[in-house]
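hey so i finally got around to running the thing on that chain from the lab meeting. sorry it took forever, my laptop kept dying and i had to restart like 3 times. anyway pasting the input first so we r on the same page abt which one it is
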Amino acid sequence: MGGFATRFARNRPAVAGLVVLAAIVAIALFAPVLYPHSPFALVGKPFQPPFAEFLFGTDQLGRDVTAEVVHGARTTLLIGLLATAAAVAFGMIVGGVAGYFGGRADALLMRFTEIFQTIPFFLFFRLVGLSDTVWGLALIYLTFNLALVIWMMRSFFDAVPRALEEAAWLDGCGIWSAPAPTCGSS
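ok and heres what got predicted. didnt touch it at all, straight out
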């Protein structure tokens, strides 16, 4: 673990990304403390410019845009985390099944993932009409994360048997035999 931490600390873009992510999470967690008033409250004249009275100005109704962004970060992070967790959980199972069994199931699931990897996802769901709600956005991210996880897990399960075959061959076993402790040893 020490090697990873050292390499990570030397990678300036990675550290900068972690700092930005930590700041966003901290702002989202402490939103009620940072901006105690409601993001829906009418607090000023409509379309006030940024940095005048409010950091990001006001919208068409006179609501503080900064309060909307800070309070909205909680929902955005929750959508991203839940959609990614669901995609990883379901995608690992489906991709593992496709990679392990192969055949028609593998071909069908890979065509499904290729569809979602080639279509611009926001355009697709905008045309379908699902991008106007929070749950629609969660479904968008779940679907495209799911396609990516299925593809990665299928690749993993497809590569593991080949790696075992190569290990068996290098150990002196036949290409069709499973690696055993007695292969290649005298």
